[in-house]
Amino acid sequence: MQLSDRIEEVIARSGARMGVALRHIESGQEVMVDADSYYPLASVFKVPILVEACYQMADGRFSPQDRWVLKTEDKNLPSGILVFLEDGLMPTVKDLLTLMIIISDNTATDMVIKKIGKDSINRRMRQLGLNHIHIQMTVRELFEELLPSADPTQDLHQLELQAKERGINKESRVFKLTPEESVRKLDHT
Predict the structure, then answer these.
(1) How many CB atoms lie within 10 A of CB 19?
(2) Do 121 and 51 belong together in one domain?
(3) CATH of the domain at 87
(4) pLDDT at 142 over 90
(5) Are residues 50 and 17 in the same domain?
(6) What is the β-pairing status of strands 20-23 and 30-33?
(7) I need a surface site. Which of 16, 62, 105, 131 has the fewest CB within 10 A?
(8) What does each C-alpha distance from 53 to 90, 134, 177, 182 come to in angstroms?
(9) Domain span at residue 2?
């Protein structure tokens, strides 16, 4: 049985919709299962943000030691810890990037996006030949489309109840799996 057959069998048994793109570096052999479809990046969208932040630091636009002020308007619903900390805190860029990548802090993520820009992230992905990675929404924008309120100061239990009553809007661009949402299309690049 070929590896691709085994992967397809596992996917079929799982009942999930997923794609797999594998390339053996030394031999160049590839296994592509539904690799031409778009998939939501979820928190993986933080990797292209990190890449662009590193390029901008290398260009001297800011340094890992620079400090950015945390404000209420920067805060997002969890995951992460910054939402629970006091306004005026001044984490370093290195702190923000670390929180963004290691614990998937949504507030740190949007603080970085605000500084470097979504357009810059997307341009960088094109420059790197990653033509099917699209970062179109901040975490806050995603929550604003999905939830009754994206206000991080509200009672989260109450928000869950409201969201459950409302149901998730499957017509939202969050679920469109097109370049208008933060997606990654599996491909050979």
Answers:
(1) 18
(2) yes
(3) 3.40.710.10
(4) no
(5) no
(6) antiparallel
(7) 16
(8) 18, 16, 25, 17
(9) 1-35
Please tell me the total number of residues recorded for the chain in this structure: 189
Alpha helices in 21-180 (DSSP H): 46-58, 93-102, 106-116, 118-127, 139-146, 156-166
Considering the domain architecture, whether residues 20 and 89 belong to the same structural domain is answered as: no
* 85: its two tokens: 């900390």
Answer yes or no: do 25 and 46 share one domain.
no
Q: Determine contact, residues 136/179, Cβ cutoff 8 Å.
A: yes
Quick one: pLDDT at residue 99? 98
| Mean pLDDT in residue range 120-141 | 92
Say which residue the tokens 């928000």 belong to. 159
The C-alpha atoms of residue 153 and residue 72 are separated, in whole angstroms, by 9
Q: Tens digit of pLDDT for each residue in 54-100?
A: 999 999 999 999 999 999 999 988 789 999 999 999 999 999 999 99
Are 96 and 111 contacting, i.e. CB atoms less than 8 angstroms apart? yes
Confidence of residue 189 (pLDDT cuts 50, 70, 90): very low
